[in-house]
Automatic annotation (TrEMBL):
Family annotation (InterPro entries): Glyco_trans_2-like, Nucleotide-diphossugar_trans
Domain Glycosyltransferase 2-like, first and last residues per copy: 9-134
Gene Ontology MF: a single term: hexosyltransferase activity
Highest taxon of the lineage: Bacteria
Source species of the chain: Chryseobacterium pennipullorum
Recorded coiled-coil stretches: none
Protein name: Glycosyltransferase 2-like domain-containing protein
Length: 347
């Protein structure tokens, strides 16, 4: 299938990105797939970002500027401007290999809603790849009828970033998919919503994105109250928008427990949160208490683990921290805890 005629819209939100953005835009400009439009939004930068953007004369680049609104609203603004057949997000401190869009498009057969490439973590200062974000080793074509990709994320781990995924634009519009405004970890919710709605998903083994990991300003580097409250907003949103609306979708309850696992792990090992934020965590965990079905393609120990995790999330913060353990269930001590839970429940 010749896919060279497809127009790909690349959305690049920019906030105080003057150190990076010229190289980022040049990596987009140099794509071997030439039929692109690049929607660049200056999100109220106070440095020289806008000046650098205006230095590009490429007719495929469309530059907008608004007051600072944050990443979610800026991406949503970009989504309103998209005219391409496909949509792709690129952050203003990341890079694209020259054949990134071409490689992603090469797997389109006419039915895929999302095509996902492999992401390399990249040192900007050393100009080299360091490692890779979790991704299938071989090409994988998924008919996502029963939330198989979400289940795969719970068991194998995937990269829940919005970037480096080629979305069919009509799919995004038909499902009215937008980023939740004003929170941290909006990508976690976007990942859930897009992969919950997508009918067909393909993973390709080619590296199609370089994800910068030595930007000290990145919010993913910080474990603040905003990070915790962002995750809690994601959990509440999935519970109200999806768990309550689609009770027959058994994966949702387990996915909520999976997100609780991330929150508790951060709280136990890395978090330095205020007393108010911890109280919010206790409140949300108790209010978001889904019921679990056995009808889901998870191993028995995985089902028990996620149920156990949800049960301890209903306790006070100190008990949560004390009783939590991470996957896998690979020791006698962990098996014993699971066994006690299966006998006595959350008491």
């Amino acid at each position: 299938m010749n896919n060279s005629h497809f127009l790909v819209s690349i959305i690049v939100p920019c906030y105080n990105a003057s150190y990076y953005v010229k190289d980022v835009l040049e990596s987009i400009q140099n794509q071997t797939h030439r039929n692109i439009e690049c929607i660049i939004i200056n999100d109220g930068s106070t440095d020289h970002t806008l000046e650098i953007l205006n230095g590009f004369s490429d007719e495929r680049f469309h530059i907008y500027s608004h007051e600072n609104k944050g990443l979610s609203d800026t991406r949503n603004f970009g989504l309103e401007k998209v005219t391409g057949d496909f949509t792709f997000f690129c952050d203003s401190d990341d890079l694209l290999p020259a054949d990134a869009i071409e490689n992603l498009l090469s797997s389109y057969t006419g039915k895929e809603d999302i095509i996902i490439g492999k992401t390399a973590t990249y040192s900007w200062e050393e100009k080299k790849n360091i490692s890779f974000l979790p991704h299938p080793e071989e090409k994988r074509v998924v008919e996502n009828k029963n939330e198989e990709v979400l289940i795969q994320n719970m068991t194998e781990g995937l990269s829940p970033i919005a970037q480096n995924k080629l979305y069919r634009t009509e799919f995004l519009k038909d499902n009215n998919l937008r980023f939740l405004s004003g929170i941290y970890h909006e990508d976690e919710l976007w990942f859930f919503e897009t992969l919950f709605k997508a009918a067909n998903v393909t993973f390709i083994p080619a590296v199609t994105y370089l994800y910068t990991v030595d930007n000290a300003q990145s919010i993913t580097k910080k474990n603040s109250d905003k990070n915790l409250l962002g995750y809690l907003s994601v959990i509440e949103t999935i519970y109200t928008r999806y768990y309550l609306k689609y009770p027959e979708k058994n994966a949702i309850a387990y996915y909520i427990s999976y997100l609780k696992k991330i929150v508790i792990g951060n709280y136990k090992h890395h978090g330095h949160y205020s007393a108010e934020a911890v109280q919010s965590m206790e409140k949300v965990f108790k209010e978001v208490n889904p019921k679990f079905s056995d009808s889901i393609p998870l191993k028995s120990t995985e089902k028990k683990y996620f149920r156990y995790l949800n049960a301890i999330s209903l306790k006070d913060a100190e008990s949560i921290k004390k009783e939590y353990f991470n996957n896998p269930v690979n020791s006698l001590r962990k098996h014993f805890k699971i066994l006690l839970f299966s006998i006595f429940g959350s008491k």
